[in-house]
Amino acid sequence: MIYETHTHFDDKAFEADRDEAIKKAIEAGVGRFVNIGASMASSLRSIDIAHTYPEFYAAVGVHPEDCRDLDEGDMEKLLEMSSDEKVVAIGEIGLDYYWDEPERDIQKKWFRRQIKLALEADLPMIVHSRDAASDTLTILEEEDAGSVGGIIHCFSYGKEVARQCLDMGFYIGVGGVVTFKNGRKLKEVVESVPLDRIVTETDSPYMAPVPHRGKRNSSEYLPFIVEEIARIKGISAEEVEKVTWANAVALFGK
Ligand code: NI
Known about the structure:
Elements (H helix, E strand, L loop, with lengths): L1 E6 L10 H10 L2 E7 L3 H13 L3 E5 L11 H11 L4 E10 L7 H18 L3 E6 L2 H10 L7 E4 L5 H9 L2 E5 L9 H9 L5 E3 L21 H12 L3 H16 L2
Parallel strand pairs: 1-2, 2-3, 3-4, 4-5, 5-6, 6-7, 7-8
The site of nickel (II) ion (NI) has 5 residues, from loops.
C-alpha cells in the first residue's frame, strides 16, 4: 500500500466528486492519507476530512502565501487544533520566494513562529520551500526544527541541500515532478537519497504526474510516482511502497 503524505482533498477542485476521488485513490492502492492545511480555514477542513474518512489524518498550519494576516490568536487556535487525535503534523509552513508574496520578512516571521508551534505541540512539520533554500536551512537550524523533524515537501533543490536536510533529520517528499522529462534534478536527488529517507506525495490537486501532467491531480496517481522512484533506484515498486510506508509511519506515528 502507498502512503499519501501530502494531499489537499478539501480543495474546491474536489467539491463535485470528493467521495469518488478518494474511493478511486484507495482502489489504486493508497492506504493512508495526510490532508494538509494551508490556511486557518483549510486546517479546519483537513480535520473534518480526517474525521470523515478512517484512512485520513490531518496537518494544520498556514502556507507562506497565506500568512500575511496571521496573529497570535491564530497560533493559539492552531495549537488547540493540533491536540485533535487525528492531527499528525504542523503544516504546510515555510518560505516561497518564487511568488515572493507577502514580503520575505513576514514569511520568515510566521515560518519561525510555526516551527515553535510544532515544537510546542511535539509534532513533525511539513515544510514548503521554493527558491528559498538558504533561508529555509538557516531558520530550520536556528529554531531547532530537527528535534521534531518532518518533511521537506515537493523537494525542488539539488543533492547538496538534500544532504543538509537529511542531516537535520528531515525526510524528502517526492511527488509528480519526478515523472517530468525536465525533472532531472529531482531524479538525481532520488538516486542519491537513501530510500529510508524518502516519502511519497502528490500535492493534489496540483502537480499531476506524467501521463496526467497539466490536469487535476489526485492521490490515485501515486502509483506513477512510486514506479518512477522504483525505476531510478533499480528496485521493485513493492519495495518502494513498503519502505516509504514505514518511513511515514515512523514520522507520523500513524
Ligand atoms: Ni501542498
